[in-house]
Predict the 3D structure of the following.
Amino acid sequence: MAGGATVGSGRAYRLDPHTLPARGLSQAGEVGAATFIIERDRAIVSRPVTAGPALALTVPVAAYRGVAVRMEAVGDNGDVRAFVELLHTDPSLTLALAITDDPEEIAGDWQAWGRTLNLPLLIVGQDGSVGEPLATIGGVIMAPTKPRRRHSYFAARRPRFLTRRKVGRRQPTEKLTGREIIARN
């Protein structure tokens, strides 16, 4: 499988967002594990069925809610496993993009997948709630507004364009002297 290790191989599972199309393996269902291919505009999910050929679904990337990061506790010693997923409203179409035991590694992949697929970044809470870490309008991240005038403290004293002017200094005028050189016959 290109781009990642299979689940249970002892390595972190990671698909590279910079080399598309990316091929991966999703969670095992009733019949078996589904394979998927992610391109910039669509995801192709192939699911095995009990009888006959595999069922292939083509889902546009715009149908996904976003790129989500989720943390799960592993064992009783406080270890954490982090997941980056392409989140869909139908849980069977949610695709795992990266799985690792080191949560610090996953932040770069989470942001890179969001930029590559042009989807919002999401956080899945422990209770299953989904939220956005940053307020966005389309692809623009919203920030607190800044004051409109740069020099609002000095607004009552001087006009803004006069704050840039510097007072000139009086210097003696330079006189240029010399003789004129003209070529005459």
Notes: The helical segments are 103-117.
